[in-house]
Write a structure and sequence with these properties.
254 residues; alpha+beta; Immunoglobulin-like; Alpha-Beta Plaits; four-stranded antiparallel beta sheet; three-stranded antiparallel beta sheet; 6 helices; 9 strands; 38% helix; 24% strand; transmembrane helix
Amino acid sequence: DPDSGDNGRLQYSLVRGQTNEFDINENTGQIFAVSVAGKAGTFYLEVQAADQGTRRLTAQTTVNVTVDSSSSSNIVMLVLNQRINVVERKRVEVQRVLEEKLGWNVYLVNIYFKESDRKARSSIDETQLNIIAFDEAHQEVPAEDVKRKLREQKGDIQLGLGEVFSAPVSAAIGEAPSAPASPELVAAIVLGVLLASTFITFLAYVLLDLKRKRKYGKQDLVKKVEIMEGIDNLWADDKNGSLKSLEKPEHMHN
């Protein structure tokens, strides 16, 4: 408001819409969530701005707030035989057709294609859409119900999308990729591998140590046998058949 004084000081408020789920800062107009746990989709809020003059003037506008449920288990994949760059340009029209034919609010979580090469964006005639539907209470519609409705309305959906893309369109339900392992699971797997590697290394060390001990044990045993044999030979018969003495020879005493 370009006015000065009280005539230029605005206060904001929510006058209609999901006022239980959201609130607004009356001085700045900042909107924030209060209670949207377990809910997702697009919420429509009617926001009013009023000046503080003697004759208060007001203006209203609708604010659309989208709560993203990209981690939901109720996401359904829809595969279109159209190039991704074309689908991205027609995103709003595609969403409108799906909402009209399914009878629910539909949110396009993601638009992508399988190929990783950027050049393929304009050459691959297959685009995957991750969609999620919400009922009038803004609750997620179970994935199986969405798939069932997509099958029932497949013909009408393809005709509606054909008008959007000005070409025949096939829409098929795809299998969403399995969820990636959680960081905790990945950490547990890595820790398990490290423990297994450590155990294998320790076991190999023990086996090598036992093998080394057996080897040197045998060598010590052979040496002991040789010594014992040497001692036995000291007491063996000489050429004349008499016992050898362990005493030093007389010349050794001198």
